[in-house]
Amino acid sequence: MSDPEAEPSRRVCLRATALLFAPWSVAAQGRYPLRPITLIVPFAPGGIADITARAVAEAMGVSLQQTLIVDNRPSAGGIVGSAAVAQAAPDGYTLLLMSNANAVSASLFSKLSFDVTRDFAPVTTLGHFDLALFVGGESRFRSLADVLGHARAKPGKLTVGTIAVGSTQNLAAELFKIRTGIDALIVPYKGTPAVLTVLRSGEIDLAFEILGPMLPQIGAGVVRALAVTSEHRLAALPAVPTAQEAGVSDYVVSSWNALAAPKGTPAAVIETLRQAAAKALASGPVRERLGGLGVRLQASTPGQLQSLLVSEIKRWGDVIRAARIPTQ
Predict the structure, then answer these.
(1) CATH of region 35-129+254-322
(2) Which of 50, 97, 152, 211 is most buried (most C-beta within 10 Å)?
(3) pTM for the whole structure
């Protein structure tokens, strides 16, 4: 027969044992993070995505009182780094720099080891990167109207340079062809330096590239921006019209990046990370460093990031199919 007076102490003991072994008790969540966090960046060091990740990670580390270690794992479509995060423990200690590449990969690759809409817990967007349409400094084209006039007068003769097939720049060029109805030859190159070289030499007529890395080239006069792909004119180039202003209807393109964690990461951890990221994006040093590279910093809720991802998968999937780009 049990002792009634001992029951309260047993209940207290059982409750304490349950809290001890619960992997994510309220107390444990309150102490997160207890050790450094790894931020996997699926791009090579030195690019605008890597610079963004490092600037935000450094500021988040101050807020979280833990180091965020940037781990670069470049691969086509960001697949290698994304797979690593999808397979990581959902404990908040492994994060992904998600990007537009993840949305594109969903349609560009026939087989992935993860589902980008289901295997990640979205945290927040970080920034958006506008593109521009560039010509060489000595180009005969003075406006986008000149380019379109030439393309329509001589179908198939306009040459357009981008980086690799399936990149945002490459798909932006494909979408440009669709929206304008022109017949142009899109030529992919290994990277931005190669595109810049052939643009300056006149080997190609036009190039689509993210604006930030090209700003110094504009300042030096070796390239000119004929239009930007943003919805509104940019403060850095107030005299350059948007593509829509220049006559390309329904044409707005930007790349973006964001933070995501493995599916199943506790909501309290996601919220802690979201708040730290939002604080980082609002800080003066981060805004100054990344604003000068043409990054439009913008935090979001997890739900807003998920909606962006779903809409971008559909948008770029439609472009890939319309352009008949073979899956890899």
Answers:
(1) 3.40.190.150
(2) 97
(3) 0.84
